[in-house]
Amino acid sequence: MVKRTHEMGKAGLSIPAVLKENKLLTPFRFFQAKRDWPQIIGKQIAKYSYIKDVDKNCVIIGVLNPVWMNQLFMYSQEIQKKLNDYIGEDFVQSVRFVRSGKKPAPVVYETLEGEEESDYPRGRIRDVVLSDDYVQMVRQETCHLPERIRGKMAALRFAQEKRRLSMEAEGFRHCPRCGRWLAKGETICLLCRLEDRQHKKKLVHDLLIQMPWLSLDQFVHEIGAVRSDRLYVELYNEVRRDCIYKLIERIHYDSDTPEDDLFLALFITRKTPVELPDDYVRNLANRYRKKE
Question: Does the pTM exceed 0.85?
Answer without folding.
Answer: no
